[in-house]
Design goal:
By secondary structure, this protein is mostly helical. It has two domains: 63 residues, Winged helix-like DNA-binding domain superfamily/Winged helix DNA-binding domain (Arc Repressor Mutant, subunit A); 145 residues, GntR ligand-binding domain-like (Four Helix Bundle (Hemerythrin (Met), subunit A), Up-down Bundle), CATH 1.20.120.530. 67% of the residues lie in helices and 4% in strands. The longest helix has 32 residues. The protein is globular and about 55 Å long. The protein starts with 15 loop residues before the first helix and ends with a helix.
């Protein structure tokens, strides 16, 4: 009897370089691999249990993301982002978020709106508790909007920006903006109305508020340093 064909879809298998990339990316973003730390091939091989080839391919991607820097015959190391790079990353991240909101929100079905509402509920809960998990909530919200934007180029381009922003925020831990409840509820209303322009305007307003918040903290820190 001939062997019957399987009716099940084969599950996608990740390339080894992608598995290595995920592990290195997570280690950089949670601080296991710290800013300025040199990346040694032999140590990475021992840690990850793979050959040098997928490690080097993953490192090349991390260089593209702006998380690792290389100089031939000198070093490969995790970058040490500056305050200016932090500002650049978040300005671009909010720009992506605004664009994704304008494109995604009008086309959300009821299931997606409910998923979005749960993300907003979680963010509100963490903001009220002044829990730094709010940063992860913001990342999840932006990833949701990008995924539902329907634009493959935006999805692909946003990957590097989102990963860059996750990393640089580790170097500026004081910049957490808690006063987001009004913005979250306004965004919820825009999503229920499928009003992409209103949703984009909410994100633009929250971006402006966060920038003002950072400016106030920096001014206060500068005054404290001047009088110390």
């Amino acid at each position: 009897m001939p062997v019957p064909k399987s009716s099940m879809e084969p599950s996608p298998r990740k390339l080894l370089r992608d598995v290595v990339l995920e592990k290195m990316l997570a280690a950089i973003q949670d601080g296991t691999l710290q800013a300025g730390e040199r990346l040694n091939d032999d140590e990475l091989v021992a840690w990850l249990g793979v050959s040098r080839t997928p490690i080097r391919e993953a490192i090349a991607k991390l260089v593209d993301f702006g998380l690792v820097e290389m100089e031939a015959n000198r070093y490969t190391r995790v970058v040490s982002p500056t305050r200016e790079q932090y500002d650049d990353a978040f300005q671009l991240l909010f720009g992506f978020a605004e664009l994704a909101a304008r494109w995604a929100v009008p086309n959300l079905d009821e299931t997606a709106v409910q998923q979005l509402s749960k993300l907003l509920d979680q963010a509100r809960e963490h903001a009220n508790a002044e829990d730094r998990a709010l940063n992860d909530d913001a990342g999840a919200l932006i990833a949701f909007l990008v995924e539902h934007s329907g634009n493959e180029l935006l999805i692909k381009t946003a990957e590097g920006v989102v990963n860059r922003a996750k990393f640089v925020r580790l170097q500026q831990p004081e910049f957490v903006f808690w006063d987001v409840e009004h913005g979250l509820e306004s965004f919820r209303a825009a999503a229920k109305a499928r009003d992409g322009e209103a949703a984009g305007a909410v994100i633009r307003g929250m971006s402006r508020a966060m920038a003002e918040h950072m400016a106030e903290i920096r001014a206060a820190n500068a005054d404290a340093d001047a009088t110390a």
